Records
---
Amino acid sequence: MNFNDWQEQQEITQFLHHEARLLDEHRWDEWQRLFTPDGLYWVPLVHGQTDHLNHASLFCEDALLRSMRARRLEQARAYSQQPPTRTVHVLGNISLESRSETGVVVRSTFLLLEWRKTEQRSFGGSVLHTLQREGRGFRIQMKRVDLINCDAAHEALQVFM
Amino acid sequence: MTTTTIDLQALVQPDRVHKRVYTDPAIFELEMDRVFGQAWLYVGHKSQVPNVGDYFTTRLGRESVVMVRHTDGEVNVLYNRCPHKGAKIVPDGSGSAGKFLRCLYHGWTFKCDGSLLSVPLRSGYEDTALDLKSPAYSVRKVARVASHRGFVFASLSEDGPELSEFLGGVATSLDNFCDRAPEGEVEVAGGVQRVIQRNNWKIFFENLHDTIHAVATHESSWRAAKEEYEAMPAGTPKPFEVVIVDGNGEPLEFWANLELKGYDHGHGFMEGIFVPPTDPVSLAYVASLEASQGAQRADEILRVNRHNTIVYPSCSPHTSFQQIRVIRPLSVDRTLVEIFSFRLKGAPEATFQRTLKYTNIVNSPSSNVMPDDLEAYNRVQEGLASDGGDWVSMHRAAGRDQPLPGGRASNGNSEMPARNMFRTWAAYMGVQAGGAE
């Protein structure tokens, strides 16, 4: 599916870039405010996973759990954040999956570098953002991150991807 | 590798151990031979291989093995090695092999009990020293396989106690794991999560019943959970997501009062830290259990409220949230933990969804609780490598255990479980840890 025009493409692209930047700069509160009240942040555990209720996930977080994670990351005694995790997201291949009266579903691909303590890790995959139109902007109803190595054994995954 | 220079006897005392037991690669290799080569190890659950030809691969100590269902219904555990050239016959993971196992390399085929079915160019072996009827040309079975309520264990050694004797007092945890299902059975479901730890496997095991680390190590998560709840309108029922995280913030006196049991062979269990909740999901589950078992029996089952159980040295069931964490040592300072979730057969769907919520929040790689554990384990591993000292203490409440049949009980704050595991470890390794306390 094509974008209506350059303007729509710009709005969506800028939104995704802004969202990634909030994560990379640890601006958790602003990031959480991007979601609709019932919005879900989901990282499936297996390829092609269709269900987050009857199958385990890598992350499956509603507003309450996103808030708890954000609070934990900022605790003075979050020992596993001494030093904190540093990330950089690189987005690409932003394309429109579908459009409805209320919003759009956008697919993008990403590379994520994570640095903590002594180790650099890399993650990559695709993201489906289900976005609701809100005035000139968007709210996230679902952010689904499909890692190419979702089914690998992982060390702790502490920050939002 | 020459390991005869290690004086194991000098490394284990009743109330302290030398740092080398966690850091020396040669000792790790000896453990693979003597601990993991002798003990009954958890392989998997029969529900993972429901049909003929279904297989599940895993590691027992250093060995790659495959659990596979045979045409006679039996679940076999085979070394995943073709007797021809040595290739792993089935790929890592799980799946269905069909009616027989077929090696990718030259097409030798085997029945699901490992016995040789056919070889290409059979005539080529006539009048040679290779006897196709010899057991050497079937896939080798592990020495012993036994199961308890569907939980399959294997021993790489022909000798040793029977599984029932080995499990002793923790068989009740596996029983309760299944008894909590209205149909009395459980099944693996919902996927497996895997976590890599940068620490020796024993550090993880010791932490399972270390009740006094929680309030310190987990401050970031229990405080975040408490803050989350305080931000909710007054009178809000405490959400399940908060309950299972803020419990770690209980004061030390709370943990002291928990029942803690240690059994022969290094096993043990700890009393549940959560009062069974009374929300609609829990009540519907209790009703389903009462409907099938009767109110009195259901009450008996649910009274057995346990947090982590230790089945040394391979797994840790959590009976009230239907999890089994399987511990696979990879090297002296790397450990793989696999988290399996189970469905209680006959329970409402919402009960299983809660099981998955628990695993996502507490046990998964993205857990908010576990990273601080992993950080602690890793700092222990790194600290032990230094020359700042040689010994690791297990003194707390030493000498105060109460004897039980086949084991011992202690105050919830005691380091009895660690001492109990090391007494067992020493026995496997062929030395004495200083005898009874």
---
Amino acid sequence: MAVTVLVAYLGTVLWTFRVSLTSSRTFASDKFIGAAQYTRLFDNERWMLSLHNLAIYGLLFILACIVIGFLLAVFIDQNVVGEGMLRTVFLYPYAMSFVATGLVWQWLLTPGTGIDSVVQKLGFPDFSFDWIVDQDMAIYTVVIATVWQFSGLVMALMLAGLRGIDGDIWKAARLDGIPVWRVYLAIVLPMMKATVATVFLLLATTVAKLFDVVVAMTGGGPGTASEVPAKFIMDHLFLRSNIGLASAGAVMLLIPVIALLAPYAYARSRRSRA
Amino acid sequence: MKRETIIAPPLALAGAPVRARRRGLSPARIGIYLFLLSAALFFLLPLYVMLVTSLKSMEEIRLGNILALPFDLTFEPWRQAWSEVCTGAACEGIRGGFWNSVAITVPSTILPILIGAINGYALSFWRPRGANALFGILLAGAFIPVQVMIYPLVRLLAGAGIFGSLPAIVLVHLVFGMPVMTLLFRNYYAGLPQELFHAARIDGGGFWRIFLHVVLPLSTPIAIVAAIMQVTGVWNDYILGLVFAGRDNLPMTVQLNNVINTTTGTRLYNVNMAATILTAAVPLAIYFFSGRWFVRGIAAGAVKG
């Protein structure tokens, strides 16, 4: 059973790699042209823009999710009333599809009817919040929507991490008179290294896969302003019939994922051997 | 005096731990609640706006405020979203997509769970040679961006003559669901007592007999977690449905995106939002009714990986 999966996984990845070395356009070709598709890929303005976008997006998304998720977890961990309800509220976006998330935020951010018109009607007629149609800002709206969707998940994982920490630490810290925020930053957070690493890995692989939200929210626009690699690959596979170039892009997308997974896998195998 | 004594006990009960009560409503406590409350409002805002928008007439949306409650409550947008709105060429509402999603989700939940259970069972009790390497690659598979595998899979399925059909999309969901399903079941079975398995072997049970009579009956809790994960995952999928399902089986998410992003004429925001809620309803309902299992599922899938 698992052998078929091996073929499906390893086989397809190798197949894509092989295609990326050929001159395939609409149809697959067996004519090998070496790394030419990769050279062409990195000469492609749209690809470079999509990498640039993904870098900005990934950095902000991961940072914001971890900071907000950790803050939510810490605040919820203060013996608050209605903890269960708050957790439910923070996590429900994660149950929604990327498409639904993208569409809701598209509606909220539509200039003229969305949040910006609310603020205008509150008595700030000059206020404008039109990032979603702004070439330079569109990618940030994708950050807002996905952080909204994912930070609850980070909260849930962080909260589990916090609850797993020995209560004696708190007693000791209180005896020493260390302020609470310092205990969290200097003692608790370093103790949650494993949780943070897991969260980071989860978020990072989500970044590499970023596709649905962009399609639903901005369609990669305005123009190509919020283009991302996954969408570039899909467009060249199915709309622009350039299979070779798309495969080269797909292989490039695989590299950061492997780079992230390798140390993780290494740590795991060392741990299990010890 | 009297009123105070009536109110006091429930208040005291609400802040159960003594530590919390002693702090009372210090500035720090007020700050904590202010932060949590504003965060909760931010998280609820999209849900609220979706709901009120879907209950307004277009006229009210144009003139009014996106945050205002509906002045003239109407369910017409919901009716249109369900049975009239255009999802591309056809204008029969997204109910077709709903049933497509059901048709895709049911087998795409049952099959991966069954196969994941068998894989997990084989990996944790029988430990065939090379099981660890196999498992490692399988796990890595959970992180590979689908774009890397899409073209070969399209060619393979086209070669098998089933590209763009219900079996194709189910098969693809099986392939992509297997890593996490296997992981879930393997971790769960690893926690079961090995003696149980040894006893069954001494009694002469074979691979399938032990699986059916000993292991499977013990699997209910993890199967529930797996089902929740798989149903929400498959239901929320967009990219696989878009590529593999074929025109007649497009899932709800794909149709929803068509509804909203291929606009001819004026945009019916109220109908759009009703359609979005309808699409999100199934996973949201699962989440609200099974919250703790849902969290356990994502925690098991994420943390132990």
